[in-house]
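Annotated sample (chain length 365).
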Amino acid sequence: MTGIYIHVPFCKRKCPYCDFYSVCRPELYKDYTQAVCRNIEAFRGRDIKCDTIYFGGGTPSVLSAEQVDRIIDTAGKCFDLCKPEITLEANPSSVDREKMLGWRKAGVTRLSFGVQSANDRELGFLGRLHDFSQAKSAVETAAQVGFRHISCDIMLGVKGQTLESLWDSIENLTALPVDHISAYMLKIEKGTAFDCDEMRNSVADDDMLCDMYLQTVGQLESKGFLQYEISNFAKEGGKSRHNLKYWHGEEYIGIGPSAHSFFDNERYYCKSDVEEFISDKVQSMVVLEDDPDKAEEYVMLGLRLTEGIDIGKAEELGGKELGENIRKKAALFQKQGLCVVEKGILRLTPAGFLASNSIIGELLW
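Output written by the structure step:
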């Protein structure tokens, strides 16, 4: 099954830490919706079976229920949709009951709210347009109108955040009717408003981030949210089926400016230019790789997941030398408490996730 990713490149206001492509151009919503549908229609007749659609951004919740419905309806006519999980990312400041009812009617099955914190001072630092009371109300309304799968994001390492305030935020979020939590460590990205020495010196240092991460893993587990990926935690039945496609190396088609794809054994993306996307008859794609290294991708993506990787499969994909190197290095990392190897399956521990880039580099090269 193929996944469909729709990048919605619009925000009411750009968050100072975000480097995803987005613009504040509400006058383009209508033309953008038409362009998305036009690009979906280019796949008509190819007999592509899909079981997930994901509206990411940006802020997909700025679109009207009618615009979301039109995109989903077009996808249903051009792809073979098989009981799809349809996710829409939402900001608490751009939702209301009527919109959510419309999204439900259109076929959206899962809402992912960018809450980030239950502390209003931390939300102000992050430049969010909502306070926690508004976020709480949005999540509760989503449950009331019938959404069974609701996710919330939380940010670790915010200026002034402590282990205690983070604990309180997680307590508040897990008390809501949600079945999924995504916990991300704040990173100062180049070109963002936060890209300055003053900001780098004011947010949590690496040691504090590690403490926050490990506390988050333990606290969420105690609340029934089991970790299944470096940054993602879910109750039973609450995992993001779409995002699992990325980490399992499955195919997905990205539509919209800056959207990436992995389809027909090629990795490619659309340029980050919404006006060009709207004006093009079909979005022009830039090919990244036409023959990606399957062993490398299997290890890099698979070790993001708590299910880990099968060392034997990595060896089949990359050769005996790779398999021997993984076994040798994994034995050392296991002694350090960074991974577990059982019956040929290599899994990183929470402490290992904190050093995953270094570990993966050692295993591969």
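Annotation: Residues 206-222 form the longest helix (17 residues).
Annotation: The first strand starts at residue 2 and ends at 8.
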